[in-house]
TrEMBL record:
UniProt function note: Catalyzes the oxidation of D-2-hydroxyglutarate (D-2-HG) to alpha-ketoglutarate. Also catalyzes the oxidation of other D-2-hydroxyacids, such as D-malate (D-MAL) and D-lactate (D-LAC). Exhibits high activities towards D-2-HG and D-MAL but a very weak activity towards D-LAC.
SUPFAM superfamilies given in the database record: FAD-binding/transporter-associated domain-like (SSF56176), FAD-linked oxidases, C-terminal domain (SSF55103)
Catalysed conversion reaction: (R)-malate + A = oxaloacetate + AH2
GO BP terms in the entry: malate metabolic process
EC number per UniProt: 1.1.99.39
Name of the protein this chain belongs to: D-2-hydroxyglutarate dehydrogenase, mitochondrial
Domain FAD-binding PCMH-type: 110-290
Cofactor: FAD
EC category name: oxidoreductase
Main location (coarse class): mitochondrion
One GO term describing the cellular component: mitochondrion
PROSITE patterns the record matches: FAD_PCMH
Compartments where found: Mitochondrion
Amino acid sequence: MGIFQRLAGRPLKSMCIWSLWSRHSSALTAVGRVTSDRALIVTSCQLTQHRYVHRGGLGASPSNPGAAPPRLPFSRVTHDDLAFFRTLLPGRTITDPDLLKSSNVDWLKTVEGNSEVLLRPKTTEEVSQILRYCNERHLAVCPQGGNTGLVGGSVPVFDEIILSTSLMNQVMTFDNISGILTCQAGCVLENLSLYLEERDFIMPLDLGAKGSCHIGGNVSTNAGGLRLLRYGSLRGTVLGLEVVLADGRVLNCLATLRKDNTGYDLKQLFIGSEGTLGVITAVSILCPRKPKAVNVAFLGCSSFQQLLETFQCCRGMLGEILSAFEFLDASCMNLLEKHLKLTNPITECPFYIVIETAGSNSAHDEEKLHNFLEEVMTSSLVTDGTVATEATKIKALWSLRERVTEALTHEGYTYKYDISLPVEKIYDLVEDMRRHLGDMAKNVVGYGHVGDGNLHLNITSPSKDPALLTAIEPYVYEWTARWKGSISAEHGLGLKKRNYIYYSKPSEAVALMGSIKAMLDPKGILNPYKTLPDNIH
Ligand SMILES: O=C(O)CC[C@@H](O)C(=O)O
Ligand SMILES: [Zn+2]
């Protein structure tokens, strides 16, 4: 019997836990801590409208980068404003504090705003009217999709009006020859995946938060996820966008063309700009064909060096059918077992790999996977493994990788870092942090997207710990900058990381970002306190 048959035949002990993780599951409500110090640092409001100017000279970063910002001098929502919104959006202007609660707090429960109004438009025209009005009245707006972000970008910091895309959830067109889908921004990623699968296509991106996140939020944060290795980033697969600008103008760049060289590619400005330049209302996206054969292998390695060699071998031997190469370390596995009662399907190892293949011919793909597994097991790069070819087992193996974030929320307080590095360096950072922090941290765990050189470094402590934070930052960012990495590989900057931007971008580039912001949103009403550092405002 070949290795593939032997591995595929292994019983998966974890079959009872494969339910799809939704980030809004009730099991998650009791975790996290709510930051309550922001209200204390509100300073007196200036009466002038602010402009985006670069303060402090090139390269100057804010002196206390982690501190919450002071409230900027936006208008407060009045009864007249509410009357306007209620006429425009009858029954969709929410002011009940109980209904606003979940929209005011982020998924991690570490950032909480105090918005008193949630608007739920259904059409682009309604978004346009809302923004035109808010711009004239100088009311700040926080655009919100599924609110699954991890850097505090999708919730208000003070009393910004929340503009939710949750009712903008219609598929507009799908062309089954080109595979181009056009839909409203509030479509939930998983619903789009199901819609496409019925038509023999798939979405080019897949995330643990797929059950809640919106495609508009994915695009505005340039979400990466689990399939980037195979299908590339949203910067390549998004073909067109419709965006409402701060003053209400609608920018219809909803192209469905693969090739369009007519000057500046404006949609790129909005991809990854986290709602600070405009509100994305519709998206056209190029979708791959649904693979006919999908296999997942869950493997164990005894060192990170062996894991890297396995990756190298995997790329060479699986070639174009490789669709994901992910890892988690033994500390992650312990948390999955402890908090979520998941079962490790193989023997204990320091490192685990999830490999997915997606191809058009199952016999061909299985043979390739078999040859690869034979190679890595006979050369002892891999010490144990199991393979799934059937959908429920595939899901079960994937949940061991996808649910690490959820398991971490049960640990107390988690300091989260989403770092891009040269692939051979990614685990050095985890080991170095363990040495550096010693007993100060409860747990230092590493997992992520090996194929993209993207490490998720998470450091836990029983509760929020300022001394621990001082030991982590700026150390972790300096480490990253030394290796020319990025301090935010895929989660964005949001509220939490914006002041560290200088570790990854030259000051001239940050200043140019400020100029673009000033041009597109001169009153700064769109998602203030996010993405841009404090010294650009
Ligand atoms: O929790 C994190 O730090 C990472 C979340 C997500 O990007 C993942 O890859 O699972
Ligand atoms: Zn990730």
